[in-house]
Amino acid sequence: MKIHEIMTKEVFVAGPTQSIREAARMMAQYDTGALPVGDDDRLLGVITDRDIAVRAVALGKSLDTPVSEVMSREILYCFEDEDVEHVTRNMGDNKVRRLPVMNRQKRLVGIISIGDLSHSARPAVTGNAVAEISQAGGAHSQSTH
Length: 145
Fold this sequence. Notes:
Blueprint: H1 20-30, E1 34-39, E2 42-48, H2 49-56, E3 78-79, H3 84-94, E4 98-102, E5 108-113, H4 114-118, H5 123-134
Parallel strand pairs: 3-4
Antiparallel strand pairs: 1-2, 4-5
Helix pairs in contact: 3-5
């Protein structure tokens, strides 16, 4: 099975100059914990509810702080034509719960979450990925920023 078969196609994108308050409102409105951050058709990063809590609120930053100041700049993504099990393993290895999905022209076409994957990959593969994601640390640990 390919990622494009199970990804969420409707993706809401935050702008880098939007405030974290606006990003949080978007997350609440669309019931999501993460938003890709883009400028025109270029993906610049991802902002999560955890980024807002740990990199902004916990440090006393204003709710008017631009998204670009607290977003994760290292962009991990997958392609829409990749195999689900391959992406699931990569998410586990990188300890991420969501990935932007790109087409081969590197345009954002969707987003994939561990929840999406749990319905399609073999249970053992998904279970291993969830176990790895749940371990503390890794490249995306908030404590390393």
